[in-house]
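Technical annex B. To support the medicinal chemistry partners, we prepared a structural model of the target in complex with pyridoxal-5'-phosphate, based solely on the information shown next.
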Amino acid sequence: MQVPLLDLKAQYAIIREEIIPAVQAVLESQIFNIGPAVKELEKTIADYCGCKAAVGVSSGTDALLVSLMALGIGPGDEVITTPFTFFATAGGIWRVGARPVFVDIDPETFNIAPAGIEAAVTEKTKALLPVHLFGQMAEMEAIMPIAERHGLAVIEDAAQAIGASRNGRMAGSMGTMGCLSFYATKTLGAFGDGGMVVTQDAELAERLEKIRNHGQGGSYVHEFIGGNFRLDNLQAAVLGVKMRHLADWLDRRQAIGRRYGELLADCAEVVTPIIHPPNVSSFNYYVIRAQRRDELRAFLTDRGIGTSIYYQLCLHEQECFASLGYRRGQFPHAEQAAGEVLALPVYPEMADEQIAVVAEGIKSFYA
Ligand SMILES: *Cc1c(COP(=O)(O)O)cnc(C)c1O
């Protein structure tokens, strides 16, 4: 039995009958940029996340970028984040001209360890950028007071965390802004690229709306310099349909997470995800730590089981950030994680037998 890492065709087969009329309605309307479907999706997602406003943008990457732009962060500024995340987190900081400052992770959750943040704050620090990695929220109740003490904004990279919560608060709702991604491998995926910024601040939302459209206030009147960061109406129509299924999909992801946990409990060579009690993980990715990770991965590939590695090289070790002056050894927990993590298949349409096949494959490798 083949078990792909992700099976988008299986999801499409289920929602096809709902998707086609929604897409057709956009085609008939011939409204392709910010249109009714975008406005409706913004409202739906703002409500879902428990936020006052949401602004649809072109990708998760651009959600981060426009958030930094909205805060006026630029050259000479520093933004504190994790070295163990997708590239876009630090890429956005760099692109506005600011400096990414890394703080090591908590080895249990893979998220930025709040204990290290305060020591990294300088006079140049303007924001904290925690990432809710793999669908588990960072320790926001420890992070927010640090931000308040130092007058810093908080941008939540919730690209992997729509539907995740902590102490009942939804991912994206606790910081100054939360950034969502609708990339195909994310829990809520568009038919192409898309993203959204959620916030409790209506004024900030207005600014974000202008930034995504070249800083236009009125027609062809530019108050400041933004860019083309718009979300397509077509993508919003697709996402609007998928939103109706999100709660069920999250339930299934959590059930799959629990099942893997049970099946792998007696496998001493792997560590299954450690979800801290205040958190409800969305299991956007199901990531284990594994001994002899690369050999295990090759073994599973031979058996037709798809896996991935998020992420095999920490950001402080990336060539493009060499000028930041970081060295290997500075963030030992992140570096160790990069050598051990392995993402297993997880998608709502996955069958119980497939979960068993993956667990079986892992156990036979070590046996
Ligand atoms: C996917 C992702 C992004 C970027 O989102 P895109 O929509 O692919 O641009 C940013 N941060 C994290 C943590 C992500 O996983």
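Notes passed to the chemistry partners:
The pocket of pyridoxal-5'-phosphate is lined by residues 59-61, 85-86, 88-89, 131, 157, 159-160, 181, 183, 193, 195 (CB under 6 Å).
The chain has a mean pLDDT of 97.
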